């Protein structure tokens, strides 16, 4: 960098140049920055000035420091798009996790019946699901299907799982608070935490899941206030947490007064879900379940089971943030549950996902493709010649959209892998064509190391 006479404080000038170089691609994701003392000597400025500049960039999520290893450009800084849909119409969609559209026919049929009922117009008023005991009982019934027993007085409603997560973070935590999570995780928690000034602390894993011993150390060392995790079909690695690990995390949560945010959005995709962490520490766990992956994304309904001592605070927070659930969509969701149509939809989704997963396993049998038959995404471990981002770029150039491990990483460490969405591409022919393209890239003898 060149420190000029802009009139700004030197640390701000340095931070602005560092940010510009990262965003312009001069400094690449994962690149190691010069040691702070070396940079201070080179620029003939105080070490504290460089430290303040780095701190500003770290708060923006541009860089991350690893004790004993140095400071690196954040691995996910190149994630300039949201993980939510096609970037170009020509791409075969295997990036965003979208369920098959076919089951929406049952949702539409239920909604049409509701709209023909005499009191249908009530569904277009402001809704007060907070006071609707019948709807809360339906939510309890739904959560029991994933192995979690709770009571109506603990239930809150939110307009989708992402809104629920954002509402919980905004209601219970303040800027600067630390939240533990896995080293790769659902990007929605990353964006929400960044917007609220919360710091995500990666907890090292053992055999693909959080190591309880390391979690306990981080509770003491970092003073984290909460732990966000996905115990069933972890996004993006597809791992399902062992029962003993769930119990161990529950014990640690009680011991250290942690709030566990258990995201159970994928639990009902499993045929026989294990008891959730919330079962072992109900007064320290907020259990989040959404119908987007199991029934329909358009229903925008999430059920949140909270500890009784947090219920009022969360309720007020959701209200103030206007996380209102559409009464019409809530009534549709509840009717699907009450009539058993929801069970039929889940059954069809599982079967469709199983068929596609078996196709993937057959076509890519010689590669390390993790995830079982009912998980609606897979985790492809890549050969040494690829990084996640280079493989994502080659796949995109071939006409397939998928997402690299770098997009999910907390900090600078991440596996060489990509996530493949199984049901997002509606056409089975296009789906097979896309898997074939990925196989061709994997089998190529070209040197992809320096993309």
Major β-sheet profile: 7 strands, mixed
Quaternary assembly: single chain
Query: What is the beta-strand fraction?
Result: 5-15%
Query: What is the first-to-last residue Cα distance?
Result: 26 Å
Secondary structure tally, helices: 15
Total count of strands: 17
Helical proportion?
40-55%
Strand line-up across the major sheet: 4-12-11-10-9-5-6
Shape, principal axes of CA atoms: globular
> Radius of gyration over alpha carbons?
23 Å
Which structural class should the secondary elements be placed in? alpha/beta
Weakly predicted, low-confidence segments: 80-88
Arithmetic mean of pLDDT: 89
What does this protein look like?
The protein has helices at 10-23, 36-43, 47-59, 104-115, 133-144, 161-172, 187-196, 212-222, 243-256, 277-280, 308-320, 327-339, 341-363, 388-398, 428-443, and strands spanning 63-66, 70-73, 92-93, 155-158, 178-182, 199-203, 205-206, 209-210, 226-229, 259-263, 285-290, 302-305, 368-370, 377-381, 400-401, 403-404, 417-421. The two termini are 26 Å apart. The protein is globular. The protein has a 7-stranded mixed beta sheet with strand order 4-12-11-10-9-5-6, sandwiched between helices. It has a 4-stranded antiparallel beta sheet with strand order 13-14-17-16, covered by helices on one side. The chain has a two-stranded antiparallel ribbon with strand order 1-2. Helix 10 links the parallel strand 10 and strand 11. It is α/β, with parallel strands linked by helices and 451 residues long.
């Amino acid at each position: 960098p060149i420190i000029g006479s802009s009139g700004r404080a030197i640390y701000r000038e340095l931070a602005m140049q560092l940010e510009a170089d990262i965003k312009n691609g001069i400094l690449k994701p994962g690149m190691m920055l010069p040691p702070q003392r070396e940079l201070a000597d080179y620029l003939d400025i105080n070490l504290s000035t460089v430290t303040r500049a780095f701190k500003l960039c770290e708060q923006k999520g541009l860089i991350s420091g690893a004790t004993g290893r140095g400071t690196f450009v954040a691995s996910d800084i190149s994630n300039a798009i949201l993980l939510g849909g096609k970037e170009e119409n020509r791409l075969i969609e295997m990036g965003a996790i979208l369920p098959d559209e076919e089951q929406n026919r049952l949702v539409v049929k239920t909604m049409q019946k509701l709209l023909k009922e005499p009191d249908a117009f009530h569904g277009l008023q402001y809704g007060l699901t907070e006071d609707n005991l019948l709807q809360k009982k339906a939510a309890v019934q739904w959560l029991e299907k994933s192995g979690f027993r709770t009571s109506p007085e603990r239930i809150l409603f939110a307009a989708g799982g992402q809104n629920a997560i954002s509402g919980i973070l905004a209601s219970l935590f303040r800027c600067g608070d630390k939240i533990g999570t896995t080293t790769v995780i659902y990007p929605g928690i990353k964006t929400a935490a960044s917007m609220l000034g919360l710091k995500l602390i990666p907890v090292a894993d053992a055999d693909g899941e959080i190591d309880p011993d390391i979690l306990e150390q981080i509770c003491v060392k970092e003073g984290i206030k909460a732990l966000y995790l996905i115990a069933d079909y972890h996004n993006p690695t597809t791992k399902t947490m062992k029962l003993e690990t769930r119990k161990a995390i529950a014990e640690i949560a009680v011991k250290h007064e942690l709030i566990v945010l258990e995201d159970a959005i994928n639990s009902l995709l499993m045929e026989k879900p294990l008891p959730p962490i919330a079962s072992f520490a109900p007064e320290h766990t907020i259990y989040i379940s959404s119908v987007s992956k199991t029934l329909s994304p358009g229903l925008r309904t999430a059920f949140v089971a909270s500890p009784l001592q947090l219920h009022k605070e969360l309720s007020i927070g959701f209200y103030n943030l206007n996380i209102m659930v559409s009464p019409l969509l809530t009534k549709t969701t509840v009717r699907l549950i009450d009539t058993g149509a929801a069970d039929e939809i889940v059954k069809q989704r599982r079967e469709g996902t199983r068929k596609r997963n078996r196709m993937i396993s057959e076509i890519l049998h010689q590669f390390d493709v993790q995830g079982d038959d009912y998980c609606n995404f897979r985790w492809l471990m890549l050969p040494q010649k690829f990084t996640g981002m280079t493989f994502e770029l080659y796949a995109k150039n071939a006409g397939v959209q998928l997402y690299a491990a770098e997009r999910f990483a907390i900090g600078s460490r991440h596996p060489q892998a990509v996530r493949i969405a199984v049901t997002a591409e509606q056409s089975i022919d296009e789906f097979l064509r896309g898997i074939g393209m990925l196989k061709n890239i994997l089998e190529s003898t070209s040197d992809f190391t320096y993309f």
